[in-house]
Specification:
This protein is mostly helical and about 425 residues long. It is built from 17 helices and two strands. One of its GO terms (cellular component) is plasma membrane.
Length: about 425
């Protein structure tokens, strides 16, 4: 609830006093917002411990796709921070390379220690670089600092486009929680996605490479492919696939790690525990079909609208709508959406990651989660409807911003109402 109130307060401050903000002021406050999270261990999840482990395993010359954290062949990599209940000299009792059991183990802080990693290659490269500069005794602190720096860098990138709207990202309590504290890799995905959208007009090939790299951090950014025209989707997919080549050569089909099992466990494969809004109306078997139809319709609409709308706006509603269809219960999945909402100047979409926090706190209560996400969808649709009505009543249209942003300004100019008599 504190995050909800904090986000509303930030939005109100930005709306009331944001016009006079400078790039330096936005970045400075964004940096200050990241400081508290560095003072304690991750709160919202234990993902950062897995990141630390994956980076450490790669530095040792092994693959986190092929070996599980409790594998005794990696016992020399254990330390009291990651394995408070299991020393390097003790046997874990795990004999299989990829056991079926995905549950946690009290001997380690790493989640799902019986299965290999799920994170794609660019994320793995990031983990490895951070691990190279982080002493084992620091635990997750190196990743927390790295995530904070990425969040600040993204605040600067957005502020260069427009300082006022950049504050929605830089000053967001959600970003502060999930970057400097939880160190979620979604911050890197958000930075790459935002850079791709900004560069798409001037450097289309580089933008496509960045989008593919974002997909190789977390798969969700690949949902934005329909918004990128021409050969850019091909380049993005090529970049994504190329990132896997070194790992395929090293471990073959094991390169998928626990990803298929994770998708099954989280309900992404059949929609049984996802699509909470659709679950209010449909049984599980119909939910998957409805979600697929909606996703295809959104992709087609995005492909059509990107010919006339700014790409930032298309990416914003496409990503946000995808989250409303899938309704993940992990709030950090919404970090790229916050950045896109700031870039597209559509703050109503921040209701979606806020809803995911409330859904996260309501885990196990499916109907409640569905109603929470439904409320977020109502907020988004209401804001869009009001905006369109205001534009229609005033007889105004949006004026374009410079081409490098791919956005439109909030200022308006009158339509041609005919010759004056």
């Amino acid at each position: 609830m504190v995050l909800v109130v904090g986000t509303v307060v930030v939005g109100a401050v930005v709306w009331r006093f944001g016009r006079g903000l400078s790039v330096g002021a936005v970045v400075a406050v964004a940096a200050l917002c990241q400081v508290p999270g560095l003072t304690q261990a991750p709160i919202t999840s234990t993902d950062a411990y897995r990141y630390v482990w994956d980076g450490r395993v790669q530095l040792s010359g092994h693959s986190p796709y092929a070996r599980v954290p409790l594998d005794d062949s990696l016992a020399q990599l254990r330390d009291p921070v990651l394995f408070p209940g299991l020393s390097p000299s003790e046997k874990s009792g795990v004999t299989e390379q990829t056991p079926k059991n995905p549950v946690d183990d009290p001997r380690t802080r790493i989640n799902r220690p019986f299965v290999p990693t799920i994170y794609p290659p660019v994320a793995q490269a990031y983990f490895t670089v951070v691990a190279l500069f982080t002493p084992w005794s620091a635990g997750t602190l190196g990743l927390q600092i790295a995530a904070a720096l990425l969040a600040i860098a993204l605040a600067w990138l957005l502020a260069v486009q427009n300082p006022r709207w950049a504050a929605l990202w830089g000053w967001s309590p959600i970003v502060a929680m999930e970057a400097s504290n939880a160190a979620h890799v979604d911050v890197l995905a958000a930075l790459l996605v935002t850079a791709a959208v900004i560069l798409t007009a001037r450097r289309p090939k580089l933008a496509a490479v960045l989008l593919g790299a974002a997909g190789s951090v977390k798969l969700l950014p690949l949902l934005l492919l329909p918004a990128f025209r021409g050969r850019r989707p091909i380049v993005a997919i090529g970049t994504f696939l190329a990132s896997y080549v070194p790992h395929v050569l090293a471990v073959g089909t094991l390169v998928l790690g626990f990803l298929p099992g994770y998708l099954n466990q989280e309900g992404f494969d059949d929609g049984s525990s996802r699509s909470a809004i659709l679950a209010l109306l449909l049984p599980p078997e119909a939910r998957q079909v409805a979600a697929a139809v909606l996703a295809l319709a959104l992709a087609a609409l995005a492909f059509h609208r990107t010919r006339r709308d700014p790409i930032a706006l298309t990416c914003c509603w496409l990503y946000g709508a995808a989250l409303l269809i899938a309704t993940p219960t992990y709030p950090w999945y919404g970090l790229p959406l916050i950045a896109l909402a700031a870039l597209a100047r559509r703050p109503e979409w921040i209701a979606v990651p806020l809803a995911s926090y409330l859904a996260y706190a309501s885990f196990g209560h499916d109907t409640r989660q569905g109603l929470i996400y439904l409320a977020a969808a109502v907020i988004v649709v209401t804001a869009i409807t009001i905006r369109h009505q205001l534009v229609a009543k005033s007889g105004l249209t949006t004026a374009p911003l410079p081409a490098n942003t791919g956005e439109r300004d909030e200022t308006h100019r009158p339509r041609n109402l005919g010759r004056a008599r």
